[in-house]
Amino acid sequence: MTNLLRLGASLWRLHVRPCHQSVFRSHALPRTAGVELGEKKLEISTGKFARFADGSAVVQLGDTSVMATAVSKTKPSPSQFMPLVVDYRQKAAAAGRIPTNHLRRELGTTDNEILTSRLIDRSIRPLFPSGYFYDTQILCNLLAVDGVNDPDVLAINAASAALALSDIPWNGPIGAVRVGMVDGQLLINPTRAEMTSSSLNLILAGGPSSQVVMIEASAENVLQQDFCHAVKVGVKHTQQIIHTIQQLAREQKVTKRTPVKVFSTPADMVEHVRQSAKERIYAVFTDSNHDKISRDEAINKVRLDTEEDLKAKFPQAEQFEVIDSFNVVSKEVFRNLVLNEYRRCDGRELTALRNISCDVDLFKPLHGSALFQRGQTQVLCSVTFDSLESTVKADIITTALSGIKDKNFMLHYEFPPYATNEIGKVGGTNRRALGHGALAEKALRPVIPKDFPFTIRLTAEVLESNGSSSMASACAGSLALMDAGVPISSAVAGVAIGLISKPNAEKPTEIQDYRLLTDILGIEDYLGDMDFKLAGTNKGITALQADVKIAGLPLKLVMEAIQQATVAKREILGIMNKCIVKPRETRKENGPVIETVRVPVSRRARFVGPGGYNLRRLQAQTGVTISQVDEETFSVFAPSPGAMNEAQDFIGEICKDDQEQQLEFGAIYTGTITEIRDIGVMVKLYPNMSAVLLHNSQLDHKRIKHPSALGLDVGQQIQVKYFGRDPTDGRMRLSRKVLQSPAATIVKTLSEKQSISIGPNSSQPTGTES
To answer: Domain named S1 motif: which ranges (predicted)?
Structure first.
C-alpha cells in the first residue's frame, strides 16, 4: 500500500509539472571550466549538485565555494512586474563554526546576507526579457569559505551561470569581479588581507559587449581618473567570465523555453490612449508649477478618465491591459519630453540641481543634528555617542569572512510611510532601507577618524521623499557629524544621476541616444533607465552605486555619468559649506565624557568589589561604562558631564583614604572577628576599616577545614601580623599562624614606653614590630 501511494505521488508530480529541460538535466555529465584572472583561477562547474533545479552551478575561488540554483515557474504570475526573488545564505558550517544562539542553528537573515542578495538581484534583474512575468527564485548557498576569498562576487557569477545553463529566458550571462587598489596598483579579486590595505572596494558586474550592468563601490577618496580606470579594468576581466559561461552553455546544448504567455499591451488600445489622452498627459508633465503630490493627483485624474473610456471602447479587455495601456503612453510622453525637448517635468535644465537648504544644531539635547532639504526630499540626521563597548558585534560567519569583529560607526536609515503621503507599517527594517543605509554609511565611513574614542550612531530619518533620499542622507549625515564635533577629514556630499535612453531599433540591447539627468526626482527614477548614485569629498569618491534597468550601459556613458555627478557633488559641497564649513572644535556641553581613573593595585579589590559588585552598582546608579585599560588604569565613559560627576563622587567614596595608611609592614595588630566562613574568618583591625579575610591556611600551623576547629567565634579578638598587600590582586595579607611559634610571639618594643596592649574597647589600633 505504501509503495502504491509513493507511485501515485510521483505520477501526480509528473502530471502537474511540465517536462521541460530541467527534468532531464539530472543525466547531464558534470563539467568544469576555469577562468584565469591574473594570478588566480576561478572555477565554474555544473551537473553535479542540485540537478532537479532548472539551472545550478558552483563557483570556486581558492577554497571558497558558492552554489546557485535557478528555478522559474511555467505559468505566468498575475502580477505586472518581474517576480524575482534572490536569497543568499551563508551558514556557519561553511566556516567550520556552530551558531552561537540558544538553538545552535541559523535564525533569520543577517545584514550581510541581505546586502549580498541585493547585489545579486541588481546584477541579474535587468537582463530578463521584457514581459517575462513568471515567478523566479535564485538561491545562493555558501558551501565553504577559506577566510581568504570573499564569496559575494562568487555568488553573482554562480547566479549568472545557473541562469545561463537553465532554460529560463535570460539575456545573459554576466560576469562579476572585485577590484581593489593597493599603493596605486589595481588588484582583481583581492584577498581579505589585501583588502585591509586597499583604498578601493569596487564590485562590478559586466554584460556581453563590455557593458556595465551593476556597480557597488566604497573608496577612500579615490580620484575620479583612478576610479574610472578601475571600472574599465574590471569590465575587461568580466568578459573572460562571460565567455567561459557561454562555452559551458554551448557544451550543455542549452535551449531556452518559450513562455506560454508573455504579457504585451494591445497596440490598438495604446493607440487609442495616444489619441485621447496624450495631450492631457503632456500638459501635466510640462507644468513646472506641480509638485510631487499635485502632479500625481493630476496624472491620476487623467488616468481614471482614460480607463473609463478604454473600458467602454474595449469591453473585452482585461484590467491589466487597460492599466498598462495608459502606463505605456504616459511613460512615452515623459521620456520623449526629455529626449526630444530637453525638458524636465519640474522645469530644470538636465544638469541643474534642485533648491538646497541646510540647517544644523536643531535640538540642544542631541549630540549633533542636521536637516538637509533638496527639493521635496528632506532628511533629518542625529548623532549619538556611546562607549566603545556599544560597537556593533559581527556574527561569527561575517567575522570569519571579513575579519571584522565590530565597528564603531553605524548609520541607520528610516523611511516612514508619511514621507510619501502613504499609510503603512512602522518599525523593522526592510531590504530597501537596509541597502540605502549601507550606501550612506559607505559614503561617510572613509572620513571618520579611526581612533575616535566613541561609538557613533547616525540616524537618518527621511521626512519627505521625492528622489535620492540615500544621497540626501549622506549629505545630512556629514553636516550632523560636523555639528557634533567629530573631526571628519572632509565634508561629504552625494547626488543621483538618471538616464533616459532610446534603444537601437535593429539591436535593442544597444543605446542609440540618451540624456543624463542630474539630481533626479522620484518620477525620473521610476520612468527612467538608471539610478546612478555617487558620493564623495571635494578631492575624490567615497561611494558609488549604479542601479541599471536596461540590459547594460556602455563604458562611455558610465564615464560621462561619473563626470556629471562629480560636478554636481562639488556644487552641493559649496552650498553645505555655507551652513557649516568644518567640524566644531569641541563637542557640545551635554555630550559624553571619557576619563581615566588610576586605581593602585592595593585598592583594586575594593574598587571592583566582591564579584564586581561595586562596578555593577556604579554603572547602574550613574549610567557610566567602565572598562579596564591596564593593571592600574580604568576608562570611565559617562553619557553626560553630570553622570561623570556622580561617578567621580562614587569612586572617591569607594577609594577614599582611610586608616589603612597607618598600618606598618611586619607589625602585629589585634583585630576583631566579624564573620566566620568555611574558608576562613573576616577580621576588622579598626572600626573604620573594611573586614579582611584571614584564610584557614594562615590561622594555625595545623591544617584545618573550618575555623570552628580552633574555637574561634564572632566578636573574638585575635592577634595577626600584617605583610602588606598582594602585588597581583591588591588584597591585604594577614597571618595568625606566624604568631603561633615561640620565636614569633616575642614582641620587641620600639622603646621602653612604646610597648602597648590593645584592649577590647580600644578604637585605635597600634602596632609593634616583632
So the answer is: 666-737
- Select from 518, 515, 497, 523 the least CA-distant residue to 291: 523
Distance CA 460, CA 440 (A): 9
- How large is the average pLDDT for residues 535-541? 96
For the stretch 535-566, what's the b/e string if a residue is b when 16 or more beta carbons lie within 10 angstroms of its beta carbon? bbbeebbbbbbbbbbbbbbebebbbebbebbb
pLDDT digits (tens, 9 = 90+) for 219-229: 999 999 999 99
What topology is assigned to 357-499+545-579 in CATH? Ribosomal Protein S5; domain 2 (3.30.230)
Whether the bond into 765 is cis, omega within 30 of 0 = no
- Alpha-carbon distance of 543 to 470, in angstroms, equals 11
Strands (E), 601-688: 625-628, 633-638, 667-676, 680-684
Q: Where are the beta strands (DSSP E) in 537-600?
A: 541-548, 593-598
Residue 602, φ and ψ in degrees, nearest 5? -65, -20
Per the rule left: phi > 0, alpha: psi between -120 and 50, beta: everything else, 122 is alpha
In this prediction, residue 636 has a pLDDT band, given cuts at 50, 70 and 90, of confident
CB 770 within 8 A of CB 748: yes
Name the grid cell of 303: 488616468
pLDDT at 756: 34
Integer CA distances (angstroms), 566 to 514, 577, 672, in order: 19, 17, 79
Q: Looking at residue 28, what is its pLDDT?
A: 62
E runs forming strands in 390-503:
392-393, 406-407, 409-414, 455-464, 493-503
Pick the CATH number of 662-769 from 3.10.20.880, 1.10.1760.20, 2.40.50.140, 3.20.20.150: 2.40.50.140
Burial of 130 (0-12, 13-18, 19+ CB in 10 A): exposed
Rounded to an integer, what distance in angstroms lies between the CA atom of residue 448 and that of residue 459?
16
Pairing of strands 84-90, 136-144: parallel
- Listed in sequence order, the residues at least 6 apart from 373 whose beta carbon sits closer than 8 Å to its beta carbon are 355, 356, 357, 358, 464
C-alpha 715/C-alpha 157 separation (Å) is: 80
Vertex 211: Cα angle to 205 and 217 (nearest 5): 40
What is the CATH superfamily name and number for domain 593-654?
Answer: K Homology domain, type 1 (3.30.1370.10)
pLDDT for the residue 744: 44
Question: What pLDDT shows up at residue 536?
Answer: 96
Cell of residue 768, nine digits: 609593634
Grid coordinates representing 478 are 556629514
Cell of 98: 556552530
